[in-house]
Amino acid sequence: MRHPDPSPASTNPQPEPAPHTGDPAVPSGFAPFHTVTGGFISLIGPVHVREVPGAPPVIGLRIAPQHLNLRGIPHGGLLATLADTALGHAINHARGGPLSIVTVSLSTDFLAAARLGDWVEAHVEIERLGQRMAFASCRLRAGERVLLRASGTFAVIGPA
């Protein structure tokens, strides 16, 4: 998926808000994320994305029964995967993708547990974009609660 250059000098128009999917479990402005490609991300979903003019996209997920661990809270691996996906997608977006980007390192701190039914959003801040490396941080939120903070280093391998 190609995204417009978020820089002020961009000649690309800003994206229109996504039409609502009609699913009451998905907040307005979010659209399905990579549903065509399948792969691993389709196994944890449904995952959604909201384009934000001049900022990194926001990735969202409604916590469903299949996301829970044996303690009845969302599995930490699910939350780490959501953060990793959001970080890589935001870097790809900022670089004007589509690029092949791989995770070099990912550090996560679990701050609070999400609950069944929570809408979880991944908000990314790009720290540095280099030619071959990129650094970014992410916060997963359920409403005002911060569930996880993550920081990652990513290598840009080449075109997708």
Tell me about this structure.
- By secondary structure, the chain is of the alpha+beta class.
- Helix content is 15%, strand content 40%.
- It contains two helices and seven strands; from the N terminus they run βαββαββββ.
- It has helices at residues 40-44, 76-94, and strands at residues 31-32, 47-52, 55-62, 99-110, 119-129, 133-142, 145-159.
- It has a seven-stranded antiparallel sheet with strand order 1-2-3-5-6-7-4.
- A hairpin with a 2-residue loop joins strand 6 and strand 7.
- The longest helix is centred in the middle third of the chain and has 19 residues, at 76-94.
- The termini are close together.
- The relative contact order is 0.18.
- Residues 1-22 have low confidence and may be disordered.
Short note summarizing the structure:
The chain has helices at 40-44, 76-94; strands spanning 31-32, 47-52, 55-62, 99-110, 119-129, 133-142, 145-159. It has 160 residues and is an alpha+beta fold. β2 and β3 form a beta hairpin.
